[in-house]
Structure prediction request, 106 residues.
Amino acid sequence: MGKDADMRKLAERLAKDNVEAEPEIRKVLWFPSKDELRVVDVLEGTARSDEVVAFHFGPDVRNGFPVPMAIALIRPDEEARRIPLPDDWGGWENAVQVWPSAERVA
Prediction:
């Protein structure tokens, strides 16, 4: 399995874990990267923001996440407005929906 496929499987697993912990999540978007697992959880009720702000975590090898992770929380209206992403994440056209189903967003 290639690195991209491995990262996608990790993104799907992280999405599932996040939704189990926070059932109000409506959607999880993955932004492919070779060095970091980057996801945006879309849910109502999180704080409003003018940009996507990610929380960064180191690798968690013991729980099956061998790469650093960046997780952001945004509201559905912020996704609809395509608020600015972190500089090194690329554009919204790179987003892949990994929960509830896998599909390209743009």
